Fold these 2 entries.
Entry 1:
Amino acid sequence: MNRIYMDNAATTRVTEPVFEAMKPYFCEKFGNPMSVHSFGRESRRAVEEARRQVAAALNADSREIYFTGCGTESDNWALRGAAYARGNTRRTLVTTTIEHHAILHTAEQLEKEDFKVVYVPVDEFGIVKLDEMEKAITEDVFLVSVMTANNEIGTIQPIEEIARMAHAKGALFHTDAVQAIGSVKIDVKAMGIDLLSLSGHKFHAPKGVGALYMKNSVHIERLIRGGAQERTQRAGTENLASIVGLGKAIELATADIDAHNAKLIEMRDHMISEILTRIPETRLNGDATRRLPGNVNVSVRYIEGESLLLSLDLKGIAASSGSACTSGALDPSHVLLAIGLPHEIAHGSLRLTMNEENTMEEVDTVVEALVEIVKRLRAMSPLYHAEKQ
Ligand code: PLP
C-alpha cells in the first residue's frame, strides 16, 4: 500500500541533505564542543555554524540564538525565565486561549506560583481579539506571549501589532513560532520580537532539538543550570549532530518561502474546496486566508474525528484529529472550543497538514478516501439517521 503522510504539523521526516550534514557528527567528529583540543574545536565550529544559520533565518545575530532540547523547553524558558527575572516589579503574564500546552501548562504553573495570567480570547476564526489584548496589557505585565501560527487550525496572528502593544507598556514580547518556521517570513528585528521559540522536527531536522532567540538587550533567568554551555545560559552538553541538522534544515526551509507557499496554498485550497463541496455538512475551522499554507482543518458533522482517523489510517493515510499532543485523550481540542465550536462539532474534526513533499495527486486520493469514509460512517450512525428523519 502506498502510504500518504499528511500529519506534518505533528512532525516531519529528516530529509536526506539534513541527514547527510549530520552524519559526520556521530562517528568521526564527536568531540565535546566545550573541549579545547582539536576534536572539541571542530565540534565547536559546527555548533557555531548552525547558530549562524538559525540567526540568518530570523534576521538575528548569532549571539542571540540559544540551542535547547525542544520547542517545549524554549517555551518554558521564555515564560518562566521572564517571570523570574522581572517578577519583583511585574507579576502578570498575558497570553491567549489557543496556545500550545507548552505555553498553557507553563502559565498554569506560574499561576500556582502567585503570578497572574490573562488569557486573551480569539474570534470565530482564531484571530486574537486585538481590543481585548490592548486592554489586558497593563504596566504590571512582564511578558506577552502569542503564537505566530496555531498548530491545530493554522491561524496566523498579527504578531507585529501585538509586539508594539506590549512594548508600549514596557512588557517583553515572546512568540511560539514552532509551526511558523518555513511558512511565515520571520524578521525578529522588523517584527519587534524579544523572544522566539522554534523546534527542529517541524521542518525536517530531528526531534529533540530546538532554539530560543533572545534579543541581545533582553535578560531572562536561566532554567537549566550546570555547565557553561550556551554562554552560561543553558547548561548541558550540546546535542551536536542534531544542532548541525537544525542549522541545515532551517537554511533549507527558509531559502524560498514564497515558492514553497505558492505550491502549498494551491493544494490546501483545492483540498478545502473539494471537501466542503463534496461532503455535506462540513465546515472549515480557522481563517480561510490568514492560515498556514499547508493546514486543512475541517469538522464533519455526526462523525467522531477518531473514527475518521482510524478509517484513514486503514487506507494508509496519516492525519490528526487535533494536535498530536492531545489526540489520544477524548477531551475536545481547547482551540476548537475557543473559536466557539460546540463539543459535538469539535469532536468531529480532522487536521490534514501538508508540506512541500506532498502532491496534488495525494490531495485527490485523500479527498476520494474521505468522501467514501464519511458516506460509510454516516450510513452506520444512529445520530445521523435520527437527525435526518
Ligand atoms: N508549540 C507549538 C505551536 C507546537 O506545535 C509544538 C509541537 O507540536 C510545540 C510548541 C512543542 O514543540 P516540541 O515538540 O519540540 O517540544
Note: Residues 127 and 221 are 31 Å apart (CA to CA).
Entry 2:
Amino acid sequence: MDNTRFVDQLQQGCQALGVGLSEDVPPKLLRLMSELIKWNAKVNLTAITAPEEVLEKHFLDSLAVLPEVEGAASLLDLGAGAGFPGLPLKLARPAMTVTLVDAVGKKVGFLKAAIAALGLKDARGLHARAEGKPEAEGIPRAEVLIARAFMDLPDWLNLAPAYVLPGGRVVAMLGKAQPEAELQARASERALRLVSSRQYRLPFSGAERQLAVFSQA
Ligand code: SAH
C-alpha cells in the first residue's frame, strides 16, 4: 500500500467512525508505522505489521475512542504495549498530556523512541507495573484512564479508578458487546456510574467493538 492510499484509507476510515482528523495527522501516523515496523524487526512489539492491518487494527481502532476522550487534559494508557491506543490519540489531540505505561522495559524503550521521533511534547513512556498504588508506582493520575487488551472488564474496573483524578472517567474498550444492564451491574457493584456505552464496527473488517465510560457514582 503506497502512502497516498494509506492516507486515503485512514481518512475514509475516520469518516466512517465519525471522528475528525486534521490533515497533519496522517503523515505522523505513517511515521509511527515505520518506527513500529523498524523496531518490530528487533523487539517483539506486535503481531500486526501489514500496513492494511496496522491501519485498521491499531490506528483506526485507537482513533475510534476519540469521542470518549474528547476534552480531557490528561490521558493515562495502562499496558500501552506498542502505544495503542495512547499514541494515535496523542497525535490526533496534541494538546492532551499522555502517559503510556508498560511493565516491559523494551516496550517502554519503543514508546520513548517513538515519542522522540515524532517530536511529541507532553507525552511520556513510563516503565512501571500498575497494581493499584499510583503514588508508590510513580504513575501520575489522569482525567481519563484507558487501556486496550489489558484486562477483562471486572479487573479493569477494580484497578482503574485509583488512577483517575477527581471528576475524571474510566474508558473500557470491549470486544464482544455486553448488554447495558451488565455494564450497569458491574458499575454499581463498585460504586461507579455507567456514563455512556456504544457499539460500532471497524470500517473495513466489520469487527465488532464496544466502548463504555464509567465515573465515580
Ligand atoms: N494496549 C496494547 C498492548 C496490549 S498487551 C495494545 O492493545 O496493542 C498488554 C500489555 O500490558 C503488555 O505490553 C504488557 O507488558 C502490559 N502489562 C501487563 N500487566 C501490566 C501491569 N500490571 N502494568 C503495566 N503494564 C502491564
Note: The mean pLDDT is 96.
